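Sequence in, structure out. Go.
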Amino acid sequence: MRQELDAIFRPRSVAVIGATPRPGTIGRETLNNVFAAEFKGKVFPVNPRYEVIHSVKCYSTVLDVPDAVDLGVIIVPKQYVQDTVRQCGEKGVKGLVVISAGFSEVGTEGKAREREVLKVVRDYGMRMIGPNCFGVVNADPDICLNVTFGKIFPKHGNVGFITQSGAMGEAVMNQAAELGIGFSKIASIGNKADISSNDILTYFKDDDQTEIILLYLENFGNPRNFTSIAAEVSRFKPIVAVKSGRTMLGAKAASSHTGALAGLDVGVDALFEQAGIMRVDTIEELFDVAAFLSRQKIPKGNRVVVVTNAGGPGILATDALIAHGMSMPDLKASTIKEMKNFISADASYANPMDMVAGAGPTEYFKTLNVIKKDSRFDTILTIFLAPVTVDELDVAKNIHTALKNTDKAVAACLMGAGEKKSGIDYLNAHGMPTYIFPEAAAKALSIVDNYRKWLDSPKGKLKTFKVNFDTARSIFDRHLADGSSAIVGEDAMEILKAYGIQAAGYEYAFTVKEAVAVAKKLGYPVVMKINTPTILHKTEAGGVMVDIRSDTEVRKAFTELRSRVGKLKKGDKFSVVMQQMISGSVETVIGMTTDPSFGPLIMFGLGGIYVEVMKDVAFRIHPLTPQKARRMIKSLKSYPLLTGFRGAPPVDIAIIEDTLLRISQLVKDFHCLSEIDINPFIVSDDRSKCVAVDARFILRQE
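Output:
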């Protein structure tokens, strides 16, 4: 990959095919940018209408160029692109950047045109970025390549950027220049007919000048390949991504509860989490995280100390940090004792450490010089709200001087800087990421901390259980042969049992008398559900009666359910299924749904309002390892309810993990599955009472 893409990112010569001197054209701006960046190689304008452009000889075709050409930049009308690409192939050009539009982005005719171009590219063994792209940049001072039509050549730095949107590429370059963030390489991949984000991620992995990777994605070519590549790259270089398109898949069409909870974006979240990619919601957050990663090392933990000269911003920072899962331990007693020698007695010797409004450059220097020695913290966040009497730049210089040699990660927030950015510019230039508001700093720190946790977690290996595969297969085969779309009831529970998943037993009753006898056998309280006719969503259809505690209640429940069914089909006989009601436990939901792009997604969440109202569920791309299952469980906001809350005993989390892994194996073994619901899966501190109460399997309709 490196050798192939070097022709694009590190060419010795560039032909700009479609160059022109006409103002306001892409051909003119692109050629101008090549010259303005002071490209270190040879440049050949190509256009049959001109003999000279900008005092440089112009050639009719690329075949007329007397020297070898590594990179061809194509800016010609769509109908001429194929012939131009063929000429590049005949010339021996190795890399192409096709800026021309009018291909797959415009419909069926454009897609056909793109396929024809791609065939020529592959026939000649070339590699192509585009078509319909913004171009590429290599800011390395030894290369200075800018084959885009943007207005800015970025500062050289350690950030690599991949974007599917040309307009977004230019916007990011402009904003990065404002924030002082430098780039190593930038690639706008457009329609990614040949070279995709996967290819460039692999290239950036081995690029010594790229230390952080930013992504703007609109869709995935091959999500599974992307996951594999990104997970490998993330171990060496952090990846931060904005993925547009948070639309739902069409939950109305889903046959299971799990399917209704899953949307297109759920698969993206699962993919990014498993690949260690830091997902951000906005371009602003992309810059916030990039500013930190490009200037600071990853903190060793999530412990933050806030140092401020104003109580309000300190409280805002505290609220945001805690809300995002960061920790704020108290200062050591020895730290407080030392600071009392020079800080006002009115100060708040806590975390946040509020030095009060009178604190200036000297107080910041002395306080930070003490706090940086406190071993209770991994990150120092310094906040300064500039009063009229204190010079912001002097404070910034003292903050930097105090912290420049610390082994902790550092960040600053200079509030109220407004147009007077001298302090912010100074700190950014000296390697300290600086923010306008404390909430932005807190969010960036939390995103980076999640990445740290991912780095610290072992990769893990798939676990295989000894199961009764033949029993499960016979049930699936029978239902597939019958043309069934779903498996529910006893057969569903038998499949779970075949895979070692504890499932509650079923007892059937066809009459009121039988129902009373079954209830006495099971022991009160009991649950009664409609068995005939088969109803996929029993609860939603009013087909479930719970907490039945007497013979009288059994008779009443049986009669009520019978009336709700109405007229049965000829040959059907009304029946109910009964189970002992399990109390004093926690309801959870386990399932699987199939995403058309990402394949099977395994789901886990707490039941009741947590899944129905709060949608507090976690999805992961199949297959699961023990480590992924564990992180999946812990990712729930409601996770503390599983670990013991307000005196309740902690549930057996190990059996949840075990069940998720067994479901993962079941999905691997049977490709006929489209969706799975185990709802509820009861968990408690007693493993013998951890059981699946109900289950349904939706079969794939071929």
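Check: Confidence is low (pLDDT under 50) at residues 247-262. The radius of gyration is 32 Å.
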